[in-house]
Amino acid sequence: MDAGHDSSPYRAPDGVIEERLAVRAKPFFLAPPASKLVVMMVFTLGWYVVWWFYRNWRAVKRHDRSRMNPAWRSIFGIFYAYACFRAINRISAGNTQERKAPAGLLAIAYVLLELTILLPAPLWLLFPLSVLPLLPMNAKARRYNQFVDAAVYRDEDGFNAWNWLGIVVGGICWAILLLGILLYLISFLVPATSA
Q1: Which of 74, 91, 138, 195 has its Cα between 20 and 30 A from that of 37?
Q2: Rounded distance, CA 129 to CA 113, Å?
Q3: What pLDDT was estimated at residue 144?
Q4: pLDDT at 1 over 80
Q5: What is the pTM of this model?
Q6: d(C-alpha 136, C-alpha 134), whole Å
Q7: Nearest to 77 by CA among 56, 105, 104, 91
């Protein structure tokens, strides 16, 4: 019995060796169905976009293994929209064989529609349209999620408790806002009575 043979570092291991490939972490973008994205953007008065950018920047960070801060990039999403759209294009293009979305044009449209909030009334009511440039990038991210792991990509399909809370609070805000606009318009239509 050769005791040295059992402890040799050059001896083949017992059992089956699993082959492990060095694979990059597969991010899952926040890519809800288009209808949910629109509802959440409108009813949360645009605050949902901060969450959308945060989750997608977090996926980019995980994929690239970078040291960037997803929170700051989502809070200042208006400045980082193009970079986020470009990153979604880059990551999804490596796994799916579809054309890249026009990240530059979509980012310009997004920024311009976001800035409508600064316009005088009633033009600032165009602000909810800022969801439109997000739709192609969201669809691209959704297809990527489906391609990477079809069992996981549907996690964001339904409305959870936080979504419903945002819808209820946002719905109340929209109701108050529209009531205020209606009362303002009525004040111009009804002549003032002299006392």
Answers
A1: 91
A2: 6
A3: 87
A4: no
A5: 0.77
A6: 6
A7: 56
What gap in Å lies between CA 171 and CA 36, rounded to an integer? 15
Residue-level pLDDT at 105: 96
pLDDT above 60 for 16: no
110: pLDDT confidence band, cut at 50, 70 and 90? very high
Contact present, 28 and 146 (Cβ < 8 Å): no
From CA 40, how far away is CA 180, in angstroms rounded?
A: 22
How many helices and strands (H and E) does the chain possess?
8, 0
Using 50, 70 and 90 to split pLDDT, how confident is the model at 121?
confident
Distance, CA of 30 to CA of 64 (rounded, Å): 17
Question: Mean pLDDT over all residues of the chain?
Answer: 83
State the DSSP string of 13-38. PSSPPPP--------------HHHHH
Joined together, the tokens standing for residue 108 give 């310009």
Residues 6+ apart with CB under 8 A from 103: 82, 85, 86, 88, 89, 137
